[in-house]
Amino acid sequence: MALNLTEFARTPRVTDGAWGTEMQKRGLPAGACPELWNVENPSAVEEVARGYVEAGSEAIITNTFGGNAFVLGQHGAADRVAELCEAGATISRKAAGDAAKVFGSIGPTGKIVMMEEVPAEQLAATFAEAARALARGGADAIVLETFNELAEIEIALKAAREATDLPVVCSMTFSSGPDQTSTMMGDTPAALAALAEAHGAAAVGANCGVGPDNYVKVARLYRQATRLPIWIKANAGLPRVDSAGKTYFPMGPEPFAGFAPALAEAGANFIGGCCGTTPEHIRAVKASLA
Predict the structure, then answer these.
(1) How many domains does the chain have?
(2) pTM score, two decimals?
(3) Is residue 205 a contact partner of residue 221, using CB atoms and an 8 Å limit?
(4) Quick check: helix, strand or coil at residue 247?
(5) Residue span of the structural domain in which 41 resides
């Protein structure tokens, strides 16, 4: 039976944290294609997923964020969308067991729809291929995440809905505008909420960005605009560079988790982390919501 996100999210659910940095800790070179590890180093990918389940995540994503023909094409793997997405979902499904739901991750293509860089049909085709593969791999739902252009997430939403019967979460990155509650393309939470409702999305959300304090504002704006469940995964603050030239995120687990109750109060139904967060951050979020 299909997962009912509204029922599942009647109480706030803890999701997972960052994947890229966790995989880099396990040896993924900077700039390498994470999705290739779904077949080349699946045990390391499973370790990341299992780490979040053990930290208390009730929903984890898949290592498939760049699993589309345009991003994979930069690594000579444009024809491996289905293979890599199905493998990624299978890994997360195995790690999740009965303890967590699996949300198949689909990110943007890097193409700007309004510039007509590629035909919309090509974008829709690669999103649909990814969605079908994630469903075959055992995903319970799909999350469209880190989108910045309303036109692209609309194409992705329609494609995923036509390709599968899985519920779809639509999540964009809000860090622009005078109060940092717009995408870099100027789209607002209210605009995404309207689009999501019009095209049958099961939830709306925000991920990445400048930090959890800003997403308390975004969650409130969402709740004013819709009754759909709200998915929030903020960065652990803005990235900084240390004296050795290494990038790091400033918010530790406790300060980050300190915003979780405010996010829940603002209307967030799913609360986790994005860049710079770890299983320790998620464990702290779980404790703060207990």
Answers:
(1) 1
(2) 0.98
(3) no
(4) strand
(5) 5-289
